[in-house]
Amino acid sequence: MTGETVRKISFEWALEGKHPGSYDDYELLSWSEGRLTREVFDEVRDLYATGTASGLPQVTIARASTMESGRQSYYVVLAVQEWSPHHDGTNRKIAYTRWFYVPYEQLIDHRVSYEALYTALRALPETPAPPLTADVPALDLSAVSPGPDALSAAALLLTGRQVCVVGAEGVPMAERLRFLDTVAALLPYGMRARLTAATWTSSTANHKIKLFFARHAPSGAHAVPWERGADVGHEQARHYHETLRWAGDRLPEVIVRLAEQTGPLSFAPEYRTTVLELLEGAIRPLTEPSVDAPETGDATPPVPREQPAGTVAVPQDEPTRIDRDVSGHEERRGTVAAPRNEPGRADRNTGGHRHRGASWPATGDGTVTRPGVDPFTRIESRPESPVWHGHGAGGRGGLVMVVALVVLGMALSAFAVLLVAGFLRRDEGPAVPEVAAPLSSTVYIQTSPGQASRFVAEALAEVLRDAGDQPIFEWADPANPVRLRTEPTVTIAYDLDLLEFLTRGNFSVDGPDEIRNQLGAQLSGQGLALVAPLPWTTQDVLVYAPDLIKPDRLKASLEHPEQGDEILVRDTFGAGPREILHGRYPDLRLRSVPARELAQELQRKKARAAIVPGDTDLFGYEHSGLMADLLPRHSLVVLANSAVGPELMPTLTALTANLDAKRIEAGSRDPQEVAREFADRVAASLPGRDATSASEEEAEPAQDSFMLPLTILFFVIVAAAVVVVLCLIGWPAALARPGSPRNRKP
């Protein structure tokens, strides 16, 4: 920690989002004009996209580097994702992601935490104006208190694989951000130039983030349970983990020394040795005996067998990683002085000490002696191992030994024969039905706007993940509610929207049954099938702008329209609903416009009145009940394309069978949480599980009935072997006693 409490930190920025009322994908809306270009901003956001969480704000830590005039510059990138007050053309809330790029060189003399950066930068306007600086307090390590999860995560980062923290869905974002700071504090500070992390990521997002929170750990990533440790099997990572744990109550001292190592470091395999050496350098003062304290053998941390103790010099002013910077330029390799196996390096301390800081007496013959046990320390000389001298084969003692060995061999051979015969007999019995493991596949889930359809999509995604499949979400455009794909695709949409899209509004139906019949005919021609309707409906509504037309004037415009009295409708609005409206209002003027244009007109408040889906939330418009009994209703349905094979259909059938209006309503309020609970219920009802468990239960008695005599026979043979060993030891000793027949003088 530096002596200066607060310092101004400069930065560059970019704002990601959507334009209000648009149907476009997320893009950069604005950015600063500095050293970094739009291409850099675009590439970084593509690499570290986490998806949009239901609960915002969320924070992502990314990295960037550029090459200018042969000099490489590193950036610590902090992205803050928050809800904006705007909606897009489908009436979904727009999330803004604010990207801040802080030069790492400023964070060397003035070390900071991620939480401090977040607090200072989040308080700035959406589009900061020059001078682009923020007051950020210096790093405070006094509150860092690592738990088993943080210790495991820090060590597992050295394996080169992603580390995912699971089981923290209910943990506040601020606490998860502090956890990322804690893990970073357990590594040399210079690794922050390369560390990427996130307080939340979608389980379906394809990202390059090293340390992150998610509901499920993706394939190939280490899973670390929240507030619990994880197994660390990698040899170097395990050594790092054991060394951190060895520090115990003095770990805060180690953390302070690690924070002093500010030279940029990489997570690449060739730098693991350097990281281990830096940790050993931070541990070493803990192993140096004090003047008054007696020396003990427990003052030495674990040391890997293949790596001698020692230190390496790490240059602090040049990069240490082969990398391509985000603007596409090649970076130059930095150099790190690797440890050298010099003669006598491990033993150059006085008295034959193997590790610096440890003090163990050496004997005259070079043998190192010390109290305690260190499994990593090599002992130069060892006592002679005891040798058991067997008795000769001659005489009665030799005869007893030979007979005992023959009996033991025959018993073991008989046991082996019985065991093989038992397995053969078991194989000849009735076959136990096997249930094939499902093949993992990618399934696209297309869903229409609205919380109800999103809940159904989230529930389906959870069930697919439990079955080992990989779901990918696609949000449907109202003007195109279904996108034809060759891959397995499930579509969740409203029936009338689909019918309007497929017929371009050229349909006339009366009632939901006729809608389903016409929809089924249209779907079959597109290679789609209706899986099931869902018990959830919404109705079109008439909306109007009170500041453009008053309620009484609205009614008159329907019955006796004047110049400009038009009701906007989407161009796919069916002929049947039009006939129904004209039946009551013969002079009604309806103006058809494309769905996107209609949304834009409403967003800009240029339309006086319009007919829109009932779940559309429009700022500045109110609902009118004048057409409540005339406008059509839309029912939510589930579709599947021809690529969805028979192995997925039971899942879809179970999903739709367990859904009711009450559950969909609850899921509409909290899609992700309710979807997880609902997925567990659906998984339990999937066909095949009961049959599998029943067949296993039937197979167990037959196996147990055969294993019981084998178990008894095994213990009998073991008892016989013990008797044989006693005979081997006792009989020769008895024969060797004075007065025994063997030693009796003739």
Give the topology.
Elements: E1 6-10, E2 12-17, E3 27-31, H1 38-47, E4 58-68, E5 71-87, E6 93-103, H2 106-109, H3 114-122, E7 133-137, H4 148-156, E8 163-166, H5 173-185, E9 197-198, E10 211-213, E11 222-225, H6 235-247, H7 251-259, H8 272-287, H9 395-428, E12 442-447, H10 451-466, E13 470-475, E14 489-494, H11 495-503, H12 512-524, E15 528-539, E16 541-544, H13 551-559, E17 567-570, H14 575-584, E18 590-593, H15 595-603, E19 609-612, E20 622-624, E21 633-641, H16 649-657, H17 661-669, H18 671-685, H19 689-735
Parallel strand pairs: 8-10, 8-11, 9-10, 12-13, 12-14, 17-18
Antiparallel strand pairs: 1-7, 2-3, 2-6, 4-5, 4-9, 5-6, 14-21, 15-21, 16-19, 16-20
Helix pairs in contact: 4-5, 4-6, 6-8, 7-8, 9-19, 10-17, 10-18, 11-12, 17-18
**Whole-number radius of gyration?**
37 Å
Secondary structure: number of strands: 21
Please give the alpha-carbon distance between the first and last residues. 93 Å
Let me know the largest β-sheet: 9 strands, mixed
Strand coverage percent: 15-25%
What is the CATH C level class of the largest domain, in words?
A: Alpha Beta
User: Which strand order do you get reading across the main beta sheet?
Assistant: 3-2-6-5-4-9-10-8-11
The CATH topology of the largest domain comes to: D-Maltodextrin-Binding Protein, domain 2
Number of domains: 6
> Mean pLDDT, as a whole number?
76
| SSE-based structural type | alpha/beta
Number of helices: 19
Spell out the CATH superfamily of the largest domain: Periplasmic binding protein-like II
- Specify the helix fraction band: 25-40%
- Anisotropy-based shape: flat
Low-confidence stretches: 291-298, 305-395, 423-439, 689-705, 740-746
